[in-house]
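Note to self: keep these together.
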Amino acid sequence: MDSGRNVLVYYHNPEFLDRYQKLLEEARQDLNLLICRDEAAIANVVKDSEIIFAGHTFPMHAISRAKRLKWIQAMGAGVENFVRSKAIPPHVTLTKIRGLFSSIMAEYVLGYMLALTQRMEEVFENKRKKQ
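Structure:
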């Protein structure tokens, strides 16, 4: 490993993982990115990781093997899975993305409310049946 900070990067969607990798590489050349596409890859590098940059699907049991871990950056606004897991040692900082998802979440909630009140699931089922 080179002298940069070891950052384990994991996201369950490969397309988004590739985008995160590109953005991180462009922003910070001093980081040693440990790109993980599955749990096997995580198991191979987690012990050397100082930072974990991951979404809510990160396997919490792997955190116990991260002996050099200092910081977990959640890729989203919610950190419930990390907190509920009780896997994060007290000396590790847990941060989340704040403010970025406000309008996206508002649109999601409004869209879901409209879909429910307009019975869109039934509409799509009738369309599928040509009724």
